[in-house]
Specification:
single chain; alpha+beta
Length: about 170
């Protein structure tokens, strides 16, 4: 058990907690910044898109996403967070059952980022997004957790397609 703990569970748990704390800190910063700039209460933020910083390519625009990527599945409303929680729990159990330490860090990043977005749904009713890419084309508004989820998925896919990396 100690070998499994130090090689798999400890990095998995530390990366989950670390990504969660970093993402929530960034989101809190943007919410407080928007409330300070516009002089509005927190409830006001939930129904508005508020620019915090603007450039020619990227704006820091605070919005709340009530669906998943590109607002898909917003029609699921309250059920979405519970469905996501079940999926995250299933991913956690699957990673533990693999008993491969090479999956610990990318899976922890994936789960920590996913839990942070789910936490937003419980606390704010939607996911706090703030990076708006509009350089050459309009892209979705996203957050740090979304980037970490994408990064972790690519890492996990790489481990699956290149099994020699996972020993």
């Amino acid at each position: 058990m100690p070998k499994l703990f130090y090689k798999l569970l400890l990095p998995l748990i530390l990366s989950i907690v670390g990504i969660f704390i970093i993402d929530q800190g960034i989101k809190e910063f943007f919410m407080l910044k928007a409330m300070g700039i516009y002089g509005v209460p927190q409830d006001y933020l939930y129904t508005r898109a508020l620019d915090i910083y603007q450039t020619n390519c990227i704006n820091m625009r605070l919005v709340f996403n009530y669906g998943v990527a590109f607002s898909m599945f917003a029609f699921l409303e309250e059920y979405l967070k519970w469905l996501q929680l079940v999926l995250i729990f299933g991913a956690f159990l699957y990673i533990i059952s693999l008993r491969k330490s090479c999956y610990a860090l990318p899976s922890g990043i994936l789960i920590g980022a996913g839990l942070s977005n789910i936490y937003d749904r419980f606390i704010h009713g939607g996911v706090v997004d703030y990076v708006y890419w509009h350089c050459g084309f309009n892209f979705a508004i996203f957050n740090f957790a979304d980037v970490m989820i994408d990064f972790a998925v690519v890492w996990i896919l790489l481990l699956n397609f290149k099994p020699q990396l996972c020993k």
